[in-house]
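To illustrate the input format used throughout this study, we show a single complete record. The first block contains the structure-token representation of the backbone; no residue identities are included at this stage. The design step must infer an amino acid for every position from geometry alone.
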């Protein structure tokens, strides 16, 4: 059984975009702000996908 992660981290965003760690944290902050989430709450892959417009199927390759 293959388990898929449902949470995305700054390191994942770095791998996907090729940008810095600081940029990745800013993206997570922006998503949290738009979704009215608190600082400690996680961002899901589907939320990140909706924000960036990158299909979830394309993101799966980076989350292994």
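Output of the design step:
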């Amino acid at each position: 059984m293959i388990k898929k992660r449902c949470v995305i981290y700054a390191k994942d965003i770095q791998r996907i975009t090729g940008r810095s760690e600081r940029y990745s944290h800013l993206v997570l902050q922006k998503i949290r702000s738009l979704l009215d989430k608190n600082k400690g709450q996680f961002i899901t892959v589907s939320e990140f996908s909706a924000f960036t417009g990158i299909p979830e199927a394309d993101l799966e390759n980076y989350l292994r």
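Structural context for interpreting the output: The helical segments are 10-17, 21-34, 45-52, 56-60. The longest strand covers residues 7-8.
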